[in-house]
Specification:
The chain has one helix at about 1-100. It is built from one helix and no strands. The longest helix has about 100 residues, at about 1-100. It has about 100 residues and is mainly alpha-helical.
Amino acid sequence: MEAKIESRISYLLAGIGVGAIGGLIAALLARKETREKVLERGTKSLDYLKERGQKFRESAKDAVKKGKNLIGCQCQESVESTAEGERQAYEEERREGMGG
């Protein structure tokens, strides 16, 4: 009877040992798969962010270019109108000086 109990206990301990080793191996494999999935998702996210950043950069360049053109046109008009005003003021002063 004692031999049966000892035999059962040794089978139990052997089963626990095999289960523990199997569990560790499964955990290591799952850990590797998890790392691979995280790396893959991180790479996809990085690619997505790079793509969106490139699109944003292009749209920002277009907006800056349009802004510069708009400001350039307004500045050019302002310079032209200022020059015209100064020319008129000069001519008026000159006429007053001659007639006066």
